[in-house]
Design goal:
The protein is of the alpha/beta class and about 575 residues long. It has helices at about 5-15, 25-45, 55-65, 115-125, 140-150, 160-165, 175-185, 190-195, 210-235, 240-260, 265-290, 300-310, 330-340, 340-360, 360-365, 405-410, 430-435, 440-445, 450-460, 470-485, 490-495, 500-515, 515-530, 550-575, and strands at about 50, 70-80, 90-95, 100-105, 135, 155-160, 265, 375-380, 390, 410-415, 535, 540-545. The strands form four sheets. The protein has a six-stranded mixed β-sheet with strand order 1-4-3-2-5-6, sandwiched between helices. The radius of gyration is 28 Å and the shape is globular.
């Protein structure tokens, strides 16, 4: 009940134990103790001292106190979730659980607020001092906001969002509200209580009374401080302190710099591309209608399913709650198995439509009018393996293998007097596999500087490297990368276009030739099943509770994730 947040049930069973704790069963006693802990936490939070600092005398006193602290939590209140468009509304600070201070620099008309420039000038020596440790929740956001206002925040020692992610990379959310509920058993003031619930009618934070903003902002700083105190021993116990302090915290500076700088676009070229792609999409649609024998809404999964399965008679592959699936995986299988041209045309239409809407049309709309650049967010906590993700826009997933994808990438341009440099790690996950498994054949291929896919093909097919055909190399490449992702014979057969039996034989030959790789993965899976988690080369931990699931589908997915994580995650560690 405690773990799942059933506080009322906890109180009910704990109530039965009041006055008879000695005679109560262990479960009831534990429940009563849990309720006492919860109520103790809530009582401490209820006793919080939050201060609104909106006078010069009060602010001077705060600056003196802040200057005496070796570490404190900081939070900014702004007018936007986008740090490159946000105006500063106020700052809050906390260095003691239950106590926090809020300094408003913008407020509704008629309310007291201090001048932004004067406040930042006084705080700058403290905020830019690398020897004064700063704590925050998603502190990268605050760094970018402050930098836009002329302050370079230094001395970041703890980010509660990053810490929570390292401790449990399987969580769906790492916002401060969810972390407060999970780790402090405390429900924070929702942002919507201040700015409104209905998105179309929401106001900005500078229009909310300072007293309300103050309670909210102080609570943010206070909770960040409390979470930091909670997480530090947990990181130590989980052997994650080195990774946290040595890799993830310093990385925040680099990501903030990347987001602040942004990228420039050739918008004229994008506009021309949009027009050209619109014509291509219309041409493909015409072919689809001709092949189908009628016009229909290509974007409607229901109408497409009717065309493919009812009227065309293709055999459905997977069922959904509303009918039969027509996702990419299904269409690829239909195209491969049946030879019917329609699924392939649908895939082509979808691909172009997505590229046009996601990049060609969307990128110019995301341009910041002040900087004339696009500022993507690089998310440190976006994946379970430790890799970065990118959003608004996603700059990491612009395709490179298609001509259209390369054209879109060509619309990213360097500022005047500069050039764009593309750098890539060569076969990083395969090199990591060679290192971790210490397979002599794989290590030798890399140490000799050979084409790894050609070298592997030569060993599997038993031919000289010079005799490896392009098809042999293609199959070898598919297996090399398939191994990293824990690919099954079925997955490989679909990837390469060969029968499942041949794909199975290919994988078996691979492991027979590179037997230390097989031994390594066997060890990874054995450890994962015992600990229900895996760790990377720098000890990054990924929980995998479903690796012991009774469901073969879930169990196999977890096994694939285990193999993938140790390689992708270790590569992410190295790159970071």
């Amino acid at each position: 009940f405690e773990r799942l947040g059933f506080k009322r049930f906890l109180k009910e069973i704990a109530g039965a134990a009041q006055g008879e704790r000695k005679d109560a069963g262990p479960a009831v006693s534990a429940a009563a103790e849990a309720v006492e802990r919860i109520e103790g936490d809530l009582a401490t939070l209820d006793a919080s001292k939050y201060h609104l600092v909106n006078t010069e005398i009060g602010f001077e006193a705060l600056v003196r106190m802040l200057g005496q602290q070796s570490e404190f939590a900081i939070d900014t209140e702004t007018t936007s979730a986008d740090p490159m468009r946000a105006e500063l509304v106020g700052l809050s600070f906390s260095w003691k659980a239950g106590e926090a201070y809020y300094v408003p620099v913008r407020a509704p008309e008629g309310e007291d607020a201090l001048a932004t420039e004067a406040v930042l000038n006084e705080l700058r020596p403290i905020l830019e001092d690398p020897d004064k440790n700063k704590v925050g929740q998603n502190i990268k956001y605050d760094m970018i906001v402050l930098r836009r206002h002329g302050v370079n925040l230094r001395g970041v020692s703890h980010d509660t969002m990053v810490a929570a992610w390292l401790l449990d990379s399987s969580r769906a959310a790492y916002n401060i509200d969810s972390l407060a509920e999970k780790y402090l058993r405390y429900r924070k003031i929702p942002t919507t209580d201040l700015i409104g619930k209905k998105r179309s009618e929401q106001i900005t934070m500078d229009l909310v009374p300072s007293e309300k903003v103050g309670d909210y902002a102080c609570e943010d700083a206070d909770i960040a401080w409390r979470l930091k105190e909670k997480f530090e021993p947990m990181l130590e116990e989980a052997q994650l302190t080195g990774l946290f302090a040595g890799i993830e915290i310093p990385l925040i500076y680099g990501l903030a710099e990347m987001e602040f700088n942004g990228i420039a676009l050739d918008e004229k070229r994008l506009a021309a591309m949009s027009e050209k792609m619109e014509g291509q999409i219309e041409e493909i649609a015409a072919k689809i209608y001709e092949e189908a024998g009628e016009e229909f809404n290509i974007g409607s999964t229901k109408q497409l399913a009717e065309i493919l399965f009812d009227k065309r008679g293709l055999k459905p592959i997977r069922k959904t709650k509303t009918g039969f699936s027509t996702d990419v995986d299904v269409l690829e299988q239909l195209a491969y198995r049946t030879g019917d041209p329609l699924p392939g045309l649908i895939l082509e239409w979808r691909g172009l439509t997505k590229l046009k809407s996601t990049y060609v049309d969307a990128l110019p709309a995301l341009r910041n009018p002040t900087t004339d650049r696009v500022h993507s967010s690089f998310n440190q906590t976006g994946t379970a393996t430790g890799r970065l993700s990118s959003s608004n826009p996603n700059l990491q997933n612009i395709p490179i293998r298609t001509e259209t994808g390369r054209e879109i990438r060509g619309c990213v341009v360097a500022r005047e007097g500069c050039v764009l440099l593309t750098a890539d790690y060569s076969q990083i996950e395969l090199r990591m596999l060679a290192h971790l498994s210490q397979d002599p054949n794989l290590c030798e291929a890399f140490m000799q500087g050979e084409d790894i896919h050609r070298s592997v093909a030569a060993q599997i097919f038993g031919v000289d490297p010079a005799e490896v055909s392009s098809e042999m190399r293609r199959q070898s490449k598919a297996v090399n990368f398939g191994i990293i992702y824990g690919q099954s014979p079925f997955g490989l057969s679909r990837e390469v276009g060969i029968p499942i039996g041949k794909a199975r034989d290919f994988i078996e030959k691979y492991f027979a030739r590179f037997n230390e790789v097989k031994a390594y993965f066997d060890g990874v899976l054995s450890q994962a099943e015992a600990e229900q988690s895996v760790r990377t080369i720098l000890n990054r931990r990924r929980p995998l509770p479903e690796i012991t699931s009774q469901s073969p589908v879930r169990r196999n997915a977890a096994r694939r994730a285990a193999m993938n994580t140790v390689l992708q995650g270790s590569a992410a560690d190295l790159i970071k």
